[in-house]
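Could you join me in thinking about how sequence relates to backbone shape in a protein? Label the sequence line and the structure token line clearly, so we can match residues to local backbone shapes. Once you have written the record down, we can walk along the chain together.
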Amino acid sequence: MKRLMEIRISTKLGLLFSGIFVVLLLIMGSIFYGVFLNVFEDYIKQDLLVRGKNHAEVLEGRFNKETIMHVIRMEKGATTKVVITDPSQRVIDSSTSLDLDMKQHLLPKQKTVKDSLLIESDWKHHDYMISVSPIGKTEGYVYMYYPSKILREIVLVLSVFMLIASIGIVFLALGLIGILSRRLTQPLLMMKDATNKMSMGQYQQKILVTGNDEIAQLGKSIQTLGEQLAYYENSRNEFLASVSHELRTPLTYMKGYSDILNKGLVKNPEEQGNYLKIINKEAVRISALVNDLFEMSKFQAGKFEMDTELTNINPLIEKVVANFKPELTKKGLELEVNLTTLPKVMIDPKRMEQVFYNLIENAIKYSIQGRITISSYQTKDFVKVKITDTGIGIPQDDLPKIWDSFYRVDQSRTRMTGGTGLGLYVVKKIVEAHGGQIMVESSLNHGTTFLISLKRLILEK
């Protein structure tokens, strides 16, 4: 039964592709056929008009036997035929004997023509395509004839050629499509089942494919996609929960304290000042969160820009450290800063300041007691900054994942310190955008060390 189902599906697939191919072939053939006819027909029309007009210009003012014979000789042996008449449409000379159709298309005696024009273009129902050109104002007319038989023969040959070629191509295509459709069916059915399960939330699927062709690669890609979807689904849920929590807490504080101040329930200026400080602090938290989200969106959209200049990174480190001294004092953490003389490097100062801010903030967050050490030094090719803490550390299994967006080591950390898992993602992207590297060493309950390496593009002498 399964084999019969596969044959039925492959047959449908073959018929579908064959039908599409035949339709496309007919459309392309029709377009080519129409374009060729239009181009060739327009060429003949323009050729008739140009040749007739040229002959008329030759005869204008020299409408004599010698000039007329010259024009007739020019058309002898040519595909086109020429007839020269006087103003009353009496034939003076021609390059061929006039048949009935040629005579019937001569203009009536009373009719005059001021410029060259086609008087017959229906090659399907008439023997000739015909143009007429006046000689001067009243000297006579030049008629040019193109035998429709030639065009009909060309169209017939083209039609037969296209028919034979189309039949051959269709049979060849049907055979190839039939073979390919059968080969495609089995792995495609497995992929269909896998994607159906993925659409129902069962993201991690095993697709048994062999080889390394496009179908096998597609199966492996679907399998990898499922694993990534499962990871991102979990990350998204955790991220949304974390962001909701991160926003709800400061917004609750801001709303509560602003309501109290707005209603005038607090009269003490000192207490009012404390409330305003709390509101400001929570606003800063929201601003930091929004800034991280904004930076992440710019990285993912490829719109991240930098304004680089020659900069000494030591003052940037000192500036960030000065901002965190109250927090260090509050948590009772020791701080050791060892900055050596460094050459200037080409960086974006604001972006690199953001890197130091995020790393030192993390060191303070995850250190309950002990020491934070910040050092800078240079090697032969690099300027390096090392930030070490004696905090709770990171499990070895989690180290490769800490650079991913939205990733947090565990929920207990998030509840304890806050954060959405974007800080280190932004740090790594900024460092790499500078052509640098960032590495991490850590073990659980034994602290963490981050090492930034920036190339010495320009050395001070």
The CA atoms of residues 208 and 219 lie 8 Å apart. The first helix runs from residue 2 to 59.
